[in-house]
Amino acid sequence: MTGAPLTLPEELLLLALDPVRGRSLNHRKFLQYGLAGAALADLEEAGRIAVEGGDRIRVTNPLPLGDPVLDGALAALPGPDKQRRGVKAQRWVRSAGRPVQELCLRRLEERGALRRETRRVLGLFPSTCFPAGAVDLAGPARDRFAGALGAGFPDRRSRLLVALASVTDLDRALLRSREHRPVRREVKRWAREIWTVHAVERAVRQDKEAGSNAASG
């Protein structure tokens, strides 16, 4: 179970989880949106989807890839026989974020990289967390991220990862030092240029604006 390559959403999730506490280093909902966007990026790379009109997803090939995470995400999109204009990327990211996260968690549990634990908050309320398991996949993922950072994120996958980290506020944990400020500015430009990441950014912004409006009201 450990030998198959990690999907982009799995790798993003490993970067986002604190290995001891088993909780995300960024906002839970923002992470879910990021995982959905990462799944879209992998499906696009595999030739299963395309974007039309700048923000509408169309399934171009409904055949499964043999990966439970990506096949689950693909199945959640309207197939070619059911869609006319496709589904808006931002809307899908918002609705599919939690299911995609659960697919990733289950897959990483199967790989032995995570453990599902139920703890009680204040001794009363049950809460599920996912600390690191016996198989270390998070360490290599973080090493790859550090290597890509040192090389200026030279390839598509590493740029997608850091751009998704940026729009979901995960970069605050992964790129904390002041020396990374120029990189964070450059990454924001990439985020605007990659449609899958831009859809995530819009979903996050919608939540932030809703929270701001609620606070001011």
From TrEMBL:
InterPro entries: GPP34-like, GPP34-like_sf. Its main location: Golgi. It holds the Pfam family GPP34. It is found in: Golgi apparatus membrane. The keyword Ligase does not apply. Keywords: Golgi apparatus, Lipid-binding, Membrane. It is a peripheral membrane protein. This is GPP34 family phosphoprotein. It comes from Streptomyces decoyicus.
